[in-house]
Write a structure and sequence with these properties.
single chain; alpha+beta; 60s Ribosomal Protein L30, Chain: A; 3 helices; Enamine deaminase RidA, house cleaning of reactive enamine intermediates, YjgF/YER057c/UK114 family; RutC-like_sf
């Protein structure tokens, strides 16, 4: 099943790729690598999940945020490839940042929300290395931010 069909079967419509909010690019290509800037858990143009994990937010809330970040990463990939998913080589790595209370230690479970979706949508090409990092705060009080490195052709 191709990526477009898989997204449709999961009921996912990719949003329009977000424009940069400051002096940076939302994605940058270097050779056959595409670097996707950190994506926030945006849904319908609004930040959908805010706050800190281990505080007001449970792991399931963080997984929802990570899943939304992954959807926005897919939107950036689609924009960079002009919708030609055949040019996608593989998802190489994601780095997930989780806004966390100091005692919260389940960042890896939160970022599973993104990893699971990316593998479900992209299949073997979505299997990736990753880091899951707890941080004291993220822009706009976002609960999660995820960046990606993608091999393209």
């Amino acid at each position: 099943m191709n990526v477009t069909d898989k997204l449709e079967s999961l009921g996912i419509t990719l949003p329009k790729a977000a424009a940069p909010a400051a002096n940076y690019k939302t994605y940058s290509r270097h050779g056959d690598l595409l670097f996707i800037s950190g994506q926030l858990p945006m849904e319908a143009g609004q930040l959908a999940v805010t706050g800190k994990l281990g505080g007001a937010l449970a792991v399931a809330d963080g997984q929802k945020a990570a899943r939304l970040c992954a959807i926005n990463i897919l939107a950036q990939i689609s924009a960079a490839l002009e919708g030609d998913w055949d040019r996608l080589g593989a998802l190489v790595k994601i780095t997930g940042f989780v806004a966390s209370d100091p005692s919260f230690t389940e960042q890896h479970l939160v970022i599973n929300g993104a990893s699971d979706l990316l593998v479900e949508v992209l299949g073997e090409r979505g299997t990736h290395s990753r880091s899951a990092v707890g941080v004291p705060a993220l822009p706009l009080d976002a609960a999660v931010e995820i960046e990606a490195i993608v091999a393209i052709g």
